[in-house]
Amino acid sequence: MRTTTEQLPGLTLTNLWLDAPLDHSRPDGETIEIFARVATSEDGANKPYLVFLQGGPGFEAPRPTLDTPPWVGRLLREYQVVMLDQRGTGRSTPVGVQVRRDGNQITTEVTGGPAGRSVADQAEYLTHLRADEIVNDAERVREAVRREGFSPNILGRGLRAGRTDLVGVSLPDLEDYFLAAKVSRLQDAVAERHRHPVLQINRGDAASEVAALERFAAMRCGAVVLIASQLPNGHPALRQLAAAGVRLVFIDPLHPQSGEVVATDRRMAMKEALGHLRALGHRRLATAGINPVSPYGRQRVAGLRQACRKWGWDFARQIVLLDHPENCEDTLRGQRIAADYLRSHYPRTRAIIAVNDRIALGLMHALQRAGLRIPEDVSILGYDDAPFAAAISPELTTIDPRVDELIDEAVGRLFGQQPLPPGWVRPKLKVRESTAAPAPRAARLSQSPRSGSRRR
Fold it and tell me: Could you read off the pLDDT of 332-348 as tens digits, one per residue?
C-alpha cells in the first residue's frame, strides 16, 4: 500500500493505493489497483470508519471538502469517511468504452484494464466488476488499514512511537518568487531524507499560523519548519510543540527566536549593494519598495545605515526611501515608484536599489519609456536573482539570496543531533549590465511625470 496526504482547511485527505485480485476467489491471479480516499476532520483521528460507495451504479467517489458534498460535513462529526473509487472507475484501474463513428457505421472499443484482449476475455474481465468483488475490495482496504496500523491523518509507522516521519511546513503564501523557491528546495531536501513534507499555507497572521501548528500537532509531525513566522519567541503554540519533542526550525522569522534559526543576512545584502554603487561613483541613491517599519525592511535599513557609517555618508541626505502606498502587483508598483522618483529625485539621485527583481523590472520599463538609459542615466539593482533577471535588456544586477544554501542549512538543523546557534546566510551580489558609473550628463526626460516620468 502506498499513501499520500493532502491538507485542506479543516480537513485531511489521505489517498491510498493497494493491489487487489481481479478475482478474489483466485488471490494469486491477475491483480488490479484499488484507490480510496480517507477524509478526516481536525479532531477525527480516533473516530471510526464509514465507507461510502458512490451510486450510479459504479462511479468514482467525489473529492470532498468540508462543504461538498453537502453530507460530508455531517458524517465527519462522527466518522472518518473512506471514499472508494469502485473497481473500473476513477483512480482505480479503469475500464471504459471508446465509441467511433465512420459514416453510418459505429464501432466500440473497450479501454483500460481489459483493452487489447479477445472479446471473450473482455467479457470475462467485466464479470469481476460486480458488487460482490467491490465489497471484497472494501474489506481489503479495511484489512490493510488494520495491518499497517494506519490512521488516515498520520503515517502509521510512527503511531506506536508517538511521532511520525511527517515534516510540517508552515508558510504565508506562494506568490512571492523567493518564498516559492524556498518551498520547492525544502520539499526536495526533505524527500531526499525519506521524510514526507506536509504544507500548510496560512493567511500571514498569527491566528492562522497557530491553527496550522495545531494541525501539525494532531498529525504527530516529527518536525516542523516555520517560514516567515509571525509568532513571537515563547508563544504557547511553540512551547507546546517543543514540549512534545517536535523539532522546530525557523527560516527567516519575523521576530527573534531562541530555537533553531536560519535567516538571510539582509543587512549584509544592503551593505554589498551600497558598496557596489559607491565604487561606481554614486554618492546618492534611492530604494524602491523597502518598508522601514516591516521586520525585513528594518533589517535592510539597518544595513544601509551601517554602510553609511562605514563610508562616512549622511543617511538622511544621501539615501531616499521610496515606496507606493497602493497595494498592487510588484511590477506595476515599480512603475509607480518610478513616477515619484522622476518627479522629485532625478537627476540628483541616479541609482536605485529595489526590494525585489519584479519592482526593479517595473522601474526599468518606466524609466526607459521616459527616455532614460539604463545604466548610463540611472543604475538599477534588484534582489532575488529571479530567472528573468539575466534575460532582460539590460541584464539586471541583483542580489542572490542563495536559497539553496539557506534551505540546506535549515534541513541540516532539522535532522541534526545537537542544537546550533542562529545561522546567517550571506547573499551574493551578481553584477550584470544594469549598474554602471553615472554618465557625465544626465539625459532629459521625454515624458511627463503623470505617465511615469517628467520633463526637465
Answer: 999 999 999 999 999 99
